[in-house]
Write a structure and sequence with these properties.
Length: 412
């Protein structure tokens, strides 16, 4: 019990410190007159934490993040009441993005998970921007329409960039890749070239009009090198490339240096261009990660809709599956070819119910769904047994039905 509480406390402290670090960096880039940051990296930290933690810990995470935010605002001498209001709106939107991903992403379909991440981030950030800027407009008299789009863009960038980096680094959709010697050297060379090219692009280049045809192609070089790192080192290589490129780009963009500072732009617009650049890079690496890893079970954002059909022979106890049950359900390599082998993976409290249900289905259709818990790694997968029906076969009666994954209770 004590060790469990210690692990929880250390986990909360880690996430709160990471949240505060992201917030501190973002506040170095904010507009002091409006208190609206041009990028809010802490949002992606919060979304990642909510995704990686079981829902029962969300309240503790929320409180830890709020404490970190209030301490950070106190350090910056911000008004306490405004900090509480904006903090509640911001953290509620982060939890909302994570909840939508858990609710609507599909187990084993990482591409769909990335699309849900994008959609949830865009929509929830718009709602949060309207509420947050509305609060500031009411409390401080700031112009609503001039600020709301800055909040929205800052939150979209702040969610996508850290979330994709953190989830790629943790590689929760599967085991982290261990590159061979050639891939290791290739990735290392790509990382060195990425840092060097990003430094040159953002620290040394000034986008004069007659050099635009050279400046912007050079700005694409770090993106291509980040893609090479992702291919060579897997998801963690892509995460490292994204973090390195993001740190260099934002550091020099804050000092108004780099290819996104041509003449004629309004204050803040150049930093928004840098945000778009980093968002495109993050999404490219996310889709590349999906392509190289395939649609694997137990994906980072998987929660619902994965299903597989089964056929059970009551006479012999044999099971036949339409596909690979281990891949569809996110299980390990243990065989699931007989009822006894399957019952060995089912929670002890659910075994009798499953046996009784399939025995009843052999005599006639069963309409109600049955929730089961199946052991998978360090947690349980909740499965819904749907519509078991008896059909005739050459050897007698068989029971056919569908198992649908509803929730994984513990993350990898």
């Amino acid at each position: 019990m004590a060790s469990s509480l210690l692990r929880l406390a250390l986990s909360l402290l880690f996430w709160a410190a990471l949240y505060a670090a992201g917030g501190y960096v973002s506040l170095r880039l904010d507009d002091p007159a409006t208190r609206v940051a041009f990028v809010w990296l802490a949002a992606g930290v919060a979304v990642s934490a909510f995704l990686l933690a079981p829902p029962r810990r969300w309240l503790a995470l929320f409180l830890a993040f709020m404490a970190a935010r209030l301490l950070l605002d106190a350090w910056e001498h911000h008004d306490f009441l405004h900090s509480v209001g904006i903090g509640c709106i911001s953290l509620a939107s982060d939890a909302g993005v994570a909840w939508l991903i858990r609710r609507y992403a599909r187990r084993g379909d990482d591409l769909h998970g990335v699309m849900v991440l994008i959609g949830a981030t865009v929509l929830v950030s718009a709602a949060a921007a309207a509420l947050g800027v509305g609060w500031l407009a009411y409390a401080s008299g700031l112009p609503f329409w001039n600020i709301v789009w800055i909040w929205w863009a800052a939150n979209v960038t702040g969610v996508l960039l850290p979330t994709i980096a953190i989830l790629s680094w943790t590689d929760v959709a599967g085991k982290a890749r261990r590159p061979g010697t050639a891939a290791l050297l290739c990735g290392l060379a790509a990382w060195v070239l990425l840092c060097a090219s990003a430094w040159y692009v953002f620290a040394e280049i000034t986008p004069h009009a007659h050099r635009a045809s050279v400046v912007f192609p050079l700005a694409c070089a770090p993106i291509l090198l980040a893609a090479v790192m992702s291919m060579a080192w897997g998801s963690r290589g892509g995460a490292l490339g994204l973090i390195s490129l993001g740190a260099i780009a934002l550091y020099y963009a804050a000092g108004e240096s780099g290819p996104f500072f041509p003449h004629g732009l309004k204050p803040g617009e150049s930093l928004l261009l840098a945000q778009c650049y980093l968002c495109v890079t993050a999404l490219l690496l996310a889709f590349l990660w999906v392509y190289t890893n395939g649609r694997r079970p137990g994906g980072a954002m998987a929660s619902v809709d994965a299903g597989i059909m089964y056929q059970y022979d009551p006479a012999s106890g044999k099971l036949a599956w339409d596909g690979d049950p281990r891949a569809a359900l996110g299980l390990d390599t243990a065989p699931l070819d007989t009822l006894d082998e399957l019952l060995g993976r089912v929670h002890p409290d659910d075994r009798q119910a499953l046996q009784a249900r399939w025995a009843a289905a052999a005599a006639g259709p069963v309409d109600a769904a049955l929730a089961l818990r199946v052991a998978a790694g360090d947690g349980w997968v909740r499965v819904m047994d749907r519509s078991p029906t008896a059909i005739g076969s050459a050897t007698g009666v068989a029971v056919v039905g569908t198992w649908q994954v509803r929730q994984r209770w513990a993350w990898r």
